[in-house]
Structures are given as C-alpha cells and as structure tokens.
Amino acid sequence: MINEIVRQQKAERDNFIKGSYIPREKLEFAGGFLSSKLIKVITGPRRAGKSVFAFLLLKDKKFAYLNFDDENLLKVKNYDEFVKSIFEVYGKVDFVFFDEIQNLENWEVFANKLQRRGINLILTGSNAKLLYKEMAARITGRHIPVEVLPFSFKEFLAGKNFGVNEDKLKLSDYRGEILNYAAQYLKDGGFPETVVGDISVSAYLETLFDAILFKDVVKRNKVRHPQKIYDLAVYTVSNFTCEFTFTRVKNILNFQSVTTAEKYMSYLEDAYLFFPLNRFSFKVKEQMNAPRKIYLADNGFVAAKAVRFSTDMGRLMENLVFIEILRRGYKLNTEFFYYKNGNGSEVDFLLKKGTQIEKLIQVCYSVENAYTRKREITSLVKASEKMNCEDLCVITWDEESREKIKGKEVVFVPLWKWLAG
User: Fold this and answer.
1) Planar angle of CA 286, 291, 294, nearest 5 degrees
2) How far apart are CA 255 and CA 276, in angstroms?
3) What is the reported pLDDT for 353?
4) Which of 106, 130, 147 marks a domain boundary?
5) Which residues are paired to 41 by β-bridges?
6) pLDDT digits 0-9 by tens, 390-408
7) 150 secondary structure, DSSP code
8) Confidence of residue 259 (pLDDT cuts 50, 70, 90)
9) Boundary residue ending a domain (113, 130, 147)
10) Burial tier of 11 (Cβ tally within 10 Å: 0-12, 13-18, 19+)
11) Structural domain count, the chain
12) Which residues contact 342 (CB under 8 A, 6 or more apart)?
C-alpha cells in the first residue's frame, strides 16, 4: 500500500514541478540553509503556498516527496516503512520533503531520528505548534524555521504581471493603476489561488476558513463543542484590530470559563487564523495584564466571514501593515507591539531591536481632516519623547510628505509604497 501511495505522489510531484509559479520572497533566505543538515521547517496558514515554496526550493534537486494529508499514510504504525518505500521508489536522493507533517502522530520523534541518520529533511505544516511546542521539546537547535504567509503586495503584483516602474510614478493613470491593485489587495488579501486563479474570492476564502477551523482546529484538538469555537472565530474576525480580553470574550459568547476561552483562542492561533498583539510596557506584569489586539492572517477573511462588517479602510490597512511587519521578520510580542499611554493616546505599532525602540508607526486612511492629522501626529510625538525614538511614520492611503513638530520629523507614506518598499 505505501509503495503505491509513494508512486502516485511521485507522479503528482513530477507534474507539480513542471508548473509556473510566482517566486516567493523568502526563497533566497531558505536556499542559504538548504545544504545544511538542519531540518528546514516551513510553516504558515493552509493554502498559503508552503508546498509550492518547498517545490521551488527543491526544483533542481534530487528529492523525494510524501504528503501526509493522505489518511491512508496515517494508519501506518511503523514509520520506517515510509523510509523504505521512499528509497525503493526514488532510489538515492539528496533531500526528503514531508508535506503537512503535523498530521502524523509523534512526527517530531520520527523527524529527529531521520535527521540523526543524516537525511536532509524539508518539512511543511499548517500549525504553529510545529515551531513553538513539539519542536521545542524534541529538536531544539536542529532546525531552521521558515514562515510562509499569503502573498505580500510585491508578490501580489507579480501575480498580476505588474511591476512598479519608478519612472512612471508621476503619471496619474499609472499611479491610479497601482492604487487600484492596492485596493484589490486590501479587500481580497493574498492567498495565492485568489490572486492567480479565476475564482470567486469570497466563496473560496469562506470555504478555506471553515476547512481550517474544522480540520486544523476542531478535529486535531478534539474540540467537544465545535459551535462554540466557530462562534469565537467569527466574533474574532468581526472584531479584528480591536482590543480584547478573555473575560470579555467569555461573557459575550457565554463560555463556561475564562480558561476555556483562552484554550480555544490558542487553537485558532496555532492554526494561523489569528495573531494576538500585546501592548508594550517596560514592566512585564503590565504588558501581560493589558488587553491585547487581534489581527487576521489575511484581509480576505473579513469580507468572507465577518458579521455585518462595513468597509473600514483604516482597519483593513492596519491589518495589512501588521502582517507585513510579521513578514519582514519582526518577532511577535518580542520585537513589535502596540502602544497606549494612560490617557488613551495610542500608537498602532512599536518596533524594537534589543532594548532600542526602533520605529513608531501609525496607520490612517486619510489625514486630510485637521483634527485627525493632529491626533495621529500628537500620539506619535508623545510616544517618541517617552521612548526616545526618532523614526516616526504615518502610513496613509495616498499621501506622501514630511512634517516637523517639536523638533520631530514625521514621515507620511502611501500604503502601496510602504508595502512595495
């Protein structure tokens, strides 16, 4: 049985690598570790392009492929049978690529054993536990994590066969075309099949969201009350970029306890549906006790699943900026946060390296209104004085300018330009 599955998947692999795909931005980074004997672990949301990423990484290499989304493979108890069948079908290979490895029980023990045998492994998985839980216990220090998220704006533009031409930016029609693509990306997000495929975006993303929820959350975690976790997911989508506490969630959704609300939210985070952002404080206790803000893995989920969401360009922009900061390698709740002082003055994103506050970012659709402009600038300047930070930025829809206030320079940059930078 295993041999037949391996042969079928080999044929799928051969067809797959003949295709044409959008190059991903992290390929060069991952390629630098390919020859290393460390396990390469590619994680991210389901359908974000992890498998394609791995195929692009291995395209010109001799590699074997096994996808553990096949339920028949999960019935196998002796995992050495996988190895035997792989080398029987493929012969000698330089790499072994296991797709959706988290479906295999005790996968980390198996991977650890193969790594010790000298097999160069590439793994993909749609569950954050790969990095933060199982791997920490079994293969700490013997793996390279690579996080693949839905398309960045630059990758989105590549999927539309559109390249930013600096020489044309002064042309109003060309700039308008860029803004049109930015509006599409803002609303529809960047899941690859919604960018390059001729499909209904909202229908596809609604189906994908439900599949992640019931396959990667309910089934894997053996959730006894799936309706409760579905309600939590929809509530969270509808309240993205907003502050939340587990006590409030418990009361609104009628959970039995705060502990249950925390546990269910952790399942949604592990499946890459949501990301929680802590409020920054120099005092750890204050940071832990403050409300957190919640962000989505992709903007397209809003139109697909939110309840009664009226288009709020500012919130959609803020979510895009959050994901891009994450994509650029800043560590969540270690190197970037949101900030709020005692008077309620807020800065959307605070970026830090080591002990140094590196950058403060506000996101606002339009600052044409004098009150709005003053509010955004004042919040930045007050925070900069307290944090000793000089790099202040307001990301807008289409304004590009600089303004000085109290000896501080605030840079206004269009969203599309910041994303494509």
Assistant:
1) 135
2) 20
3) 92
4) 147
5) 123, 145
6) 999 999 999 999 999 888 9
7) S
8) very high
9) 147
10) exposed
11) 2
12) none
Distance CA 178, CA 182 (A): 6
Phi and psi at 388, nearest 5°, equal: 55, 50
Structure tokens at 310: 């009226």
Query: Which is it for strands 392-396 and 336-340: parallel, antiparallel or unpaired?
Result: unpaired
CA 119 vs. chain centroid, Å, equals 29
**pTM for the whole thing?**
0.93
Is residue 344 one of the residues assigned to a domain? yes
Strand partners, 63: 95
Please state, in angstroms and rounded to a whole number, the distance separating the CA atoms of residues 280 and 286: 8
Full residue range of the structural domain in which residue 335 is found: 321-421
Whether 40 and 34 have beta carbons less than 8 Å apart is answered as: yes
Show Cβ contacts of residue 398 under 8 Å, excluding neighbours closer than 6 positions.
179, 414, 415, 416
Helices of type H across 239-344: 246-253, 258-270, 284-289, 300-305, 313-327
- Alpha-carbon distance 152 to 420, whole Å? 9
- CA gap 214, 273 in Å, rounded: 12
- The rounded distance, in Å, linking the Cα atoms of 339 and 352 is 12
Q: Cα angle vertex 191, ends 128, 200, to 5°?
A: 135
Rounded Cα distance, 191 and 149, in Å: 8
Q: What is the DSSP letter of 328?
A: T
Q: Which residue has the tokens 């690859």?
A: 192
CA distance 383 to 340: 9
Structure confidence by residue, pLDDT tens digits, 91-101: 999 999 999 99
